[in-house]
TrEMBL record:
Name of the protein described by the UniProt record: MADS-box transcription factor 23-like
Assigned GO CC terms: nucleus
PROSITE patterns (alphabetical): K_BOX (PS51297), MADS_BOX_1 (PS00350), MADS_BOX_2 (PS50066)
Cellular compartments annotated: Nucleus
Keyword vocabulary terms for this entry: Coiled coil, DNA-binding, Nucleus, Transcription, Transcription regulation
GO biological process entries: positive regulation of transcription by RNA polymerase II
UniProt source species: Vigna angularis var. angularis
């Protein structure tokens, strides 16, 4: 006697439904493995149970299979509807063209051109932007100058220390004959006879001072 035909419908009994799900899930995964091996196919299988639990099988990598699936779907969409793709790129080109036009207008206004039609508020905002930009440029310039001055001071200190060491090596004797013989020998920069070396002058960045102009009290006749 053969097996009776099973009616394909939802199983009401939860226990029977869970047992059937477990058996058929294992059989489906087994068939997927056989298909991948026998036919050299790339197979990906995703199963979610009624409780939300995930079961999956991939013959290679599930990530690569999904990426390949998305690429194929996108390619098929473009092949089926090429007009939609053309419209999409036209819209993108128009958006980029408008953005470029806005940037060009802003650049010309920053250069002091095409200011006609701007309100007082817009001009004030533009002035504030220019002042902020100018302040940033000045801060950057001052920082560069400070860095250069620090580097010059560092090099000057190194040269000063080298001069001191050389002077000690050459004129380090303290007998009277040597002192008399070296009386007119020029000393290194920052050193004086009979005392310790003076400190090297440090360079500093100073802000320019505004000159004050006074008007004459007497009027010319």
């Amino acid at each position: 006697m053969g097996r009776g035909k099973i009616m394909i419908e939802r199983i009401d009994n939860s226990t029977s439904r869970q047992v059937t799900f477990s058996k058929r899930r294992k059989g489906l995964i087994k068939k997927a493995k056989e298909l991948a091996i026998l036919c050299d196919a790339q197979v990906g299988l995703l199963i979610f149970s009624s409780t939300g639990k995930l079961y999956e099988y991939a013959s290679t990598s599930m990530k690569s299979i999904i990426e390949r699936y998305n690429a194929c779907k996108e390619e098929q969409h473009h092949q089926i509807n090429p007009e939609a793709e053309v419209k999409f790129w036209k819209r993108e080109a128009e958006i980029l063209r408008q953005q470029l036009q806005i940037l060009q207008e802003n650049h010309r206004q920053m250069m002091g051109e095409q200011l006609y039609g701007l309100s007082v508020r817009s001009l004030q905002d533009l002035e504030n932007q220019l002042e902020m930009s100018l302040q940033g440029v000045r801060m950057k310039k001052e920082q560069i100058l400070k860095d250069e001055i620090q580097e010059l001071n560092r090099k000057g200190n190194l040269i000063f220390q080298e001069n001191v060491e050389l002077y000690k090596k050459v004129y380090g004797t303290t007998d009277s004959a040597t002192t008399s013989r070296n009386a007119f020998v020029p000393l290194p920069f920052g050193m004086h006879a009979g005392g310790p070396p003076q400190e090297l002058v440090q360079l500093q960045l100073c802000q320019p001072e505004q000159e004050a102009y006074e008007t004459s009290d007497t009027a010319t006749k």
